[in-house]
Prior knowledge:
The chain is an alpha/beta fold. It is built from ten helices and 17 strands. Strand 11 and strand 12 (about 200-205) form a beta hairpin.
Amino acid sequence: xxxxxxxxxxxxxxxxxxxxxQHIAESRRFKAWLLDQFGVLHDGKQPYPxxxxxxxxxxxxxxxxxxxxxxxxxxxxTADKMRSLGFDPSLFVGAVTSGELTHQYLQRRDDxxxxxxxxxxxxxxxxxxxxxxxxxxxxxxxxNVEEADFVLAHGTEALGLxxxxxxxxxxxxxxxxxxxxxxRKIPMVVANPDFVTVEARALRVMPGTLAAKYEQLGGExxxxxxxxxxxxxxxxxxxxxDVSNCIAVGDSLHHDIKGANAAGVRSVxxxxxxxATELGLGRSSGQVADESTVRALASKYKANPSYLMPAFxxxxxxxxxxxxxxx
Length: 327
């Protein structure tokens, strides 16, 4: 069911093409900006050109900024990552990550679905990118599917062992393990719903890909993070705003824009991120996407951006256009 604050899917919506955020920022219409990190602010290795100066200019308008990310990691780790890349922590109210939400829900168990989970899990995690700690969650990592109550997916590189370390696994190996889990009909919690992410200008497979595979196998998946509205609600609560005076910025139509639609939040679609190839764009910052191509892609994902821009930079306005939403 579409929440009352969401935009009905059968309405014609306008999206406005901009070269940057200046037009929106100077209007001071939005008190808070909910910013995706990968594909918007940085590529995992370095900030995008102009991203830091754009944040600084936005801060001067009095806007509050919250990083809202489908990262498997805790919010504090994301804050440290941003700092290491040269972002000033004082520019942000804070960060909300899908990994943080997953940790809190598993720890509190005050939600009926999580309360029903057992304590033994198959843990799919990272290896090269750094394993995810389960400290404080009172979970038992098992390697035998027959002993598992659920699957916890933080990464796509490794399988956690009962000893506390992890062993590298290929995607194909992990999928075979998931086939066994699906046969036992145990649920999965996915701490990062992204299918892919931009990393050093290349695309990397994320846990959402495994979760989608698990659903295809008939497994039940609890998606933590975008496009679920819970992460937007957490970010709005952190900033002290509601749907009428905040805007979300992201590069994924399925996760960032569709999630903003579900939460009733206006959105900016950054075309130079994960959809760049689909839109016929190179990986260089600043290329303008063809609006008819954007309309077709948005229709495919049933996502409806309010604004469209090549990258998270300052700039000027380009004439508006329309986008027809699918039923």
